[in-house]
Design goal:
Layout: H1 9-21, E1 32-36, E2 42-47, H2 78-84, E3 94-99, H3 103-112, E4 116-121, H4 128-139, E5 143-146
Parallel strand pairs: 3-4, 4-5
Antiparallel strand pairs: 1-2, 1-3
The structure holds zinc ion.
Length: 160
């Protein structure tokens, strides 16, 4: 007899996005992204972090103060990392992300050929960058769908 209550595809890929977010060293915001092709295969993963070679111990995660002393000029968002880390052309792919994309990531999503964005949290709903993303997605025919639930993924280590 088979198991019936397995994860749905949406739950599965959003869970992988959450798992990726656990790698983020940002003390305030951990975002994960998972790109899936039309065969439902994962082709890109990402989380918010500094570029290669930019040491986490040398850069600050601060959100306020002098611009160059904050995280903002340096951090690569989860969606962009997932696109840049991807292993194939992304035309027709779907991006799962735990937080609705900012306008900078929206541009990269559109230009990469991704056709659908599935997101969970939309905490910046109505703010300018958020509105710009929605405007561009709408004009570029990138579908964006919010999950009707939120997921909690935990990893528990049992030493033996
Ligand atoms: Zn972004």
């Amino acid at each position: 007899m088979k198991r019936n209550h397995v994860l749905s595809w949406d739950q599965y890929f959003m869970s992988v996005a959450h798992l990726s977010a656990m790698r983020s060293k940002d003390p305030n915001t951990q975002v994960g992204a998972c790109i899936v092709n039309e065969q439902k295969r994962i082709v890109g993963l990402g989380y918010n972090g500094f570029p290669m070679g930019c040491d986490d111990d040398m850069y600050s995660w601060e959100r306020s103060g002098e611009f160059l002393d904050t995280k903002y000029p340096y951090v690569v968002h989860a969606e962009l990392n997932a696109i840049l880390n991807s292993i194939q052309n992304l035309s027709g792919c779907t991006l799962y992300v735990s937080l609705f994309p900012c306008n900078e990531c929206a541009k990269a999503i559109i230009q990469s050929g991704i056709r659908k964005v599935v997101y969970e949290d939309d905490k910046y709903n109505g703010e300018p960058a958020n509105l710009a993303s929605k405007r561009m997605f709408t004009d570029a025919n990138v579908e964006f769908v919010q999950l009707s639930y939120s997921l909690k993924v935990t990893v528990k280590q049992n030493n033996h």
